[in-house]
Amino acid sequence: MLNELMILAKIKEGDIKAFEEVFRRYYSPLCWYAAGITGDTESAEEIVEELFYTLWKNREQLQILQSVKSYLYRAVRNEAIQYCEHQEVKERYQTSVQTAKESEASIDPHWQMEYKELQTLVQQALNKLPDRRRRIFIMHRMQGMKYAEIALALSLSVKTVEAEMTKVLRTLRVEIDNYIQSR
Fold it and tell me: How far apart are CA 120 and CA 75, in angstroms?
């Protein structure tokens, strides 16, 4: 323990030889330990390398109250567990994305047909609109522009843009209601 405290004091002072001694002594065993937790030798090596990098970078602020060995093993254990938890989150996300894609592909064909009909109906209704009105709708709903941005781009007042959007939505609502009642 006394020897470790001396080595630690040297590392704090910036003694690269003392740091290299600790690195050589613990690098491989720590990699094996981390690999046992993560199940991945490449990630284990990255965890241990990052630990030693951080140790050297923050050497002046080190507050190791127990043995260096205990400190290193606990730090590697914590990082390895955190890595595993992160991997689980990534896997759950990938699974949910895959599930969503699969469910999207298996949507009821009847529903898909109705959805396409509705899309066609909306597009036809938009095509019937005056140019400026259709352009305002596209800028707002499809390009995500705010009314003020549209007004500036088309040299109109914000009130005019609002009025045109109201008219577009009213027209679409009537077209969709007619479609629904004709079914």
Answer: 60
